[in-house]
Design a protein that fits this description.
This protein is of the alpha/beta class and 352 residues long. It contains 12 helices and 12 strands. β9 and β10 form a beta hairpin. The chain binds guanosine-5'-triphosphate (GTP). This is CobW family GTP-binding protein.
């Protein structure tokens, strides 16, 4: 009996590009394909793991830290072992890299895995169409990530004009070599694009060979540039609800370097029914209210990622948003500032 190897697809892209959104779309529209998910979050609180649509028993979170910096592939192997055991009956495994990971390192680690039940299934690189130029300027290494991709998704097509989208698409196509380049809104790609791109043995589609990736183009295992060396992460978990006005004042004046915020906010009596998922990517800010999951502890959990930021100052500012007991109740219009950033149409259910 021959055992089918499970393809392991690496899903990468800069902070906030839309990896989790794409992954959730794929999970929702998988139609019978059994997908195992490995999430590599950056920050003490695993926000991504919490926002990936649950497939019980087939999601593992790699927690704080960057997988691409692990000294060897043993931690990855440990998790692959869990996901790839025959009882899981998975058809494909997707590793969502942290937004600061070096995708080449992740690919190397999958290729180096000793697990015989898995095979490298390709690299998907998600690009934020609206932030692409700015990200390239700040992180020129972005250009190195595209040629090793098998599929590049130019996401957030809705956030740019048609001309801008064409420009980004053309630039990406120029950098991405033979990779397939598709445009998307809210990560809505055909899931088949992800699963059918199993790489033929000995060859990675695109310009680089497996040897190039394993040993570096010049045959040397050169140390990789770390975008996250310059980034700092601040995590906050607060039991007290936040005051909407104070939080908005904080968000409206957030420093330039604070590129990414994600998490859940409890506004207490100002909206007892809903938990507010918050996302900031660059100057983009959105709240997504949804009923608190049953039995879930009412906590605010935030992860802030930025470069050149004053972590202690941010912590202090966030702490000052917490409500101090009943005498500190938010006023009745307090939520207006938050509701300006709620856009329900963005998370429409899939057409499929
Ligand atoms: N307008 C718009 N917003 C999008 C699109 N795709 C994702 N978003 C929003 O962008 C924000 C970040 O999306 P995520 O999917 O969390 O991004 P990510 O790449 O997983 O983020 P990190 O894990 O922090 O690197 C969220 O508010 C998403 O709803 C899109 O195509 N258009």
């Amino acid at each position: 009996m021959t055992t089918q190897q499970i393809p392991v697809v690496v899903l990468a892209g800069f902070l906030g590009a839309g990896k989790t959104t794409l992954l959730n779309h794929v999970l929702r529209s998988a139609r019978g394909t059994r997908i195992g998910v490995m999430v590599n979050d950056f920050g003490d609180i695993g926000i991504d793991a919490m926002t990936v649509a649950g497939q019980v028993g087939s999601t593992v979170s790699l927690g704080n830290g960057c997988l691409c910096c692990a000294v060897d592939a043993s931690e990855l192997d440990e998790y692959l072992e869990v996901l790839a055991r025959p009882a899981s009956r998975l058809d494909v495994i997707v590793i969502e890299a942290s937004g600061l990971a070096e995708p080449q390192e992740l690919v190397r680690m999958v290729l180096a895995s000793e697990n015989e039940r898995i095979v490298y299934g390709g690299l998907v690189q998600v690009v934020d169409a609206a932030e692409f130029s700015a990200t390239r300027q700040r992180h020129p290494e972005t250009d190195r990530h595209l040629p090793i991709a098998d599929l590049v998704v130019v996401n957030k097509a809705d956030r740019v004009s048609e001309d801008e989208l064409r420009d980004v698409h053309e630039t990406v196509r120029g950098l991405a070599g033979k990779a397939v380049v598709v445009d998307a809104r809210h990560g809505r790609i055909d899931p088949e694009l992800l699963f059918d791109r199993v790489v033929p043995e000995g060859e990675i589609e695109g310009q680089m060979s497996i040897e190039d990736i394993l040993y570096g183009e010049d045959g040397e295992d050169a140390p990789h540039a770390h975008p996250h060396a310059e980034y700092e992460t601040v995590s906050l978990a607060a039991a007290a609800p936040l005051d909407p006005r104070r939080l908005m004042a904080f968000l409206d004046s957030r420093p330039e370097g604070l590129y990414r915020i994600k998490g859940f906010v409890d506004f207490g009596a100002a909206d007892p029914a809903n938990r507010y998922t918050v996302h900031a990517v660059g100057r983009f800010l959105r709240f997504y209210p949804e009923p608190w999951p049953e039995g879930e502890e009412r906590l605010t959990q935030l992860v802030l990622i930025g470069s050149g930021v004053d972590a202690a100052g941010l912590r202090k500012e966030l702490a000052s948003c917490e409500l101090n007991g009943p005498q500190d109740a938010p006023d009745e219009h307090g939520m207006w500032g938050v509701l300006r950033y709620v856009q329900r149409t963005e998370e429409e259910p899939d057409e499929s």
